[in-house]
Automatic annotation (TrEMBL):
<keyword id="KW-0460">Magnesium</keyword>
<dbReference type="InterPro" id="IPR000890">
    <property type="entry name" value="Aliphatic_acid_kin_short-chain"/>
</dbReference>
<dbReference type="InterPro" id="IPR023865">
    <property type="entry name" value="Aliphatic_acid_kinase_CS"/>
</dbReference>
<feature type="site" description="Transition state stabilizer">
    <location>
        <position position="202"/>
    </location>
</feature>
<feature type="site" description="Transition state stabilizer">
    <location>
        <position position="141"/>
    </location>
</feature>
<comment type="subunit">
    <text>Homodimer.</text>
</comment>
<dbReference type="GO" id="GO:0006085">
    <property type="term" value="P:acetyl-CoA biosynthetic process"/>
</dbReference>
<keyword id="KW-0067">ATP-binding</keyword>
<comment type="pathway">
    <text>Metabolic intermediate biosynthesis; acetyl-CoA biosynthesis; acetyl-CoA from acetate: step 1/2.</text>
</comment>
<keyword id="KW-0808">Transferase</keyword>
<dbReference type="GO" id="GO:0005524">
    <property type="term" value="F:ATP binding"/>
</dbReference>
<protein>
    <recommendedName>
        <fullName>Acetate kinase</fullName>
        <ecNumber>2.7.2.1</ecNumber>
    </recommendedName>
</protein>
<dbReference type="Pfam" id="PF00871">
    <property type="entry name" value="Acetate_kinase"/>
</dbReference>
<dbReference type="GO" id="GO:0008776">
    <property type="term" value="F:acetate kinase activity"/>
</dbReference>
<feature type="active site" description="Proton donor/acceptor">
    <location>
        <position position="109"/>
    </location>
</feature>
<feature type="binding site">
    <location>
        <position position="343"/>
    </location>
    <ligand>
        <name>Mg(2+)</name>
    </ligand>
</feature>
<comment type="function">
    <text>Catalyzes the formation of acetyl phosphate from acetate and ATP. Can also catalyze the reverse reaction.</text>
</comment>
Length: 374
């Protein structure tokens, strides 16, 4: 089956054509590029299906066929992922309009974390707030982590069921997930994709008391605060650059003190989240880095891993390469790997599953119309 996959991330919209499990075409645009979806749709011959990444699926645990009702339900959770969800909704609408008769499937980042253990899923907030189970930790980057688990098992010659690993997805968004036996047991992003380590333009976790203080004294309303936390913080906010780690590292190498501090905070916070994630496992079989930074700035991930010597991890100098590989030294307590982010392959898999469940006929594919996406 030939699937057009669309992955709206915070910095880029990535498109790929996946034919029977192998990518045969690939393109990317800055996320705000007008006409990018039309370009993606017209660039390759008509696919059998399309699959769109939605970071938030609400309570949805599996991929679903996109219908008007599904989109309406996915729109309701847009405020919880304000950078990503509106873009995914727009992408799905455009693909449906441009490819009439082609089944469009929605695949969710949150699905992989849907069975988080209670202690990892809940915030210590008043019962009255959390009773409906909506104000909780959802977790994101699930499609990426799902692929990493599959690929790591393959690279290490182990079964997913026996593997305990920590996956650091380090792109424009950054998250760390602990996986035991193929299941997410803790993850750093929570109710929104703002929690966790520092990111390209997002703050990651900040003392809520500090934010309350600024809102009172600035004074600053929620929209202005959201803009600062999503777009004006992290590497970008600290260094005054775009937040692209390559740019920040170049400024740091040129002696810019703000950029030096930004990289130090970024590395420190990522290392801290990895350390925290390890404590959700009984044993660490692998630490895996994935995402644009892992692929293109491997020296930064090597620095993070090197600082994890307390866990017995040993990593030497590493070269930039597109190959999935072990980057740790032979005497490392566990292998450290870099795996290319392949959300495209998980998206295609999701579309194939939905269509197979319907007997292969797009028109008869299962939809979530009966079950609400909340
Ligand atoms: N071609 C590239 N060259 C250098 N760095 C890159 C490249 N692509 C991505 N990066 C790095 O990865 C980051 C974006 O990661 P990516 O996973 O593509 O982002 P998104 O979160 O939008 O999916 C950039 O900020 C940059 O640091
Ligand atoms: C969830 C998230 O932050 O995704 P991305 O890194 O693609 O922006
Ligand atoms: Mg991404």
């Amino acid at each position: 089956m030939r699937v057009l996959t669309l992955n709206p991330g915070s910095s880029t919209l990535k498109a790929a054509v996946v034919d029977d499990g192998a990518a045969v075409g690939w393109a990317a645009w800055p996320s705000d590029t007008p006409g990018a979806v039309l370009d993606a749709v017209r660039r390759w011959r008509r696919p059998d299906a399309a699959a769109v990444r939605f970071v938030h699926g609400g309570a949805q645990k599996t991929p679903v066929l996109v219908t008007d009702r599904v989109l309406e339900n996915l729109e309701r959770v847009a405020p919880f992922a304000p950078v990503h969800q509106p873009l995914s909704l727009e992408v799905a609408r455009q693909v449906r309009a441009e490819l009439p008769g082609v089944a469009v499937v929605a695949c969710f980042d949150t699905a992989f974390h849907a069975e988080l253990p209670d202690a990892a899923a809940h915030y210590p907030l008043p019962r009255a707030w959390t009773r409906q189970n909506r104000l909780r930790r959802y977790g994101f980057h699930g499609l990426s982590v799902r692929y990493v688990v599959r690929r790591t098992a393959e690279l290490l010659g182990r079964s997913e069921a026996e593997l305990q690993l920590v996956c650091a997805h380090v792109g424009a968004g950054v998250s760390v997930t602990a996986v035991r036996g193929g299941r997410s047991v803790d993850t750093s992003m929570g109710f929104t994709p703002l929690e966790g380590p520092a990111m390209a333009t997002r703050s990651g976790s900040v003392d809520p008391g500090l934010l309350l203080h600024v809102m009172k004294t600035a004074p600053m309303g929620p929209d202005a605060m959201a803009d600062v936390l999503y777009h004006g913080s992290g590497l970008a906010g600290m260094s005054g650059t775009s937040g692209d780690l390559g740019e920040v590292s170049a400024a740091a190498a040129g002696g810019d003190a703000d950029a030096v501090l930004a990289v130090a905070v970024y590395v420190h916070r990522l290392r801290r989240e990895i350390g925290a994630a390890v404590t959700s496992l009984d044993d660490l079989d692998a630490l895996v880095f994935t995402g644009g930074v892992a692929q293109y700035q491997p020296e930064t991930v090597a620095a993070v891993a090197r600082d994890l010597g307390v866990l017995g991890l040993r990593v030497g100098a590493i070269e930039r390469s597109d190959a999935d590989r072990v980057i740790s030294l032979p005497d490392s307590a566990a292998p450290v790997l870099v795996v290319r982010a392949r959300e495209d392959l998980e998206l295609a898999r999701g579309a194939e599953e939905v269509l197979a469940a319907a007997g292969g006929a797009p028109g008869r594919a299962h939809s979530a119309d009966g079950g609400e996406v909340r």
